[in-house]
Amino acid sequence: MILFRIKELISKKEKEENRKITLNEVSEKTGVNRTSLSKMQNPHMKHSTTTQAIDALCIYFNCKVEDVMVHVPDNEIK
């Protein structure tokens, strides 16, 4: 299963910039729909997205694709 690491990325950016970051802000800055971002945070939604959205998130968070999402075997998901 592919897991998105949106929460972790937001938390890291909040610490780096010493401020609160909302999903609304991420959505506005990246062009990724807020609902999509919410679904990405829930591993049980099994959300599908576009490479354009992944690219926008990489740019916003200044990270690599593997920082945005990771593959975890289904039997390791709680």
UniProtKB/TrEMBL annotation:
CDD domains: HTH_XRE. InterPro entries: Cro/C1-type_HTH, Lambda_DNA-bd_dom_sf. One of its GO terms (molecular function) is DNA binding. Residues 19-74 form the HTH cro/C1-type domain. Signal peptide: none annotated. This is Transcriptional regulator.
